[in-house]
Design a protein that fits this description.
0% strand; mainly alpha; rod-shaped; 5 helices; single chain
Length: 100
Amino acid sequence: MIRKAVLLFLVALLLPACAELPGFPLGAPAPAVQQTEDTLFREAEASYRRHAYRQALQQYEAYLNRSPQGDHATAARLRQAELLGLLGDWQGSLRRYQSL
């Protein structure tokens, strides 16, 4: 009987120590929200439509670096080839098309 009472007392005493204290998270802080692959692709498409070709080329590259096998990878590679031609890099454009 005394053992049960001591055990119950210890559980009641130690149980609050398992709770998270307000303002002090137990885990690592949540990472900042990162752009998703779809967001990167949509931003590149928007730049392309605005004729901001250099920016679009960089954004497609960022998308492909993050998601080389993503849903829009083939479309991004095609756009890169097209943009290189629009920017006057005919050889680079041809190489991109040939690699596809």
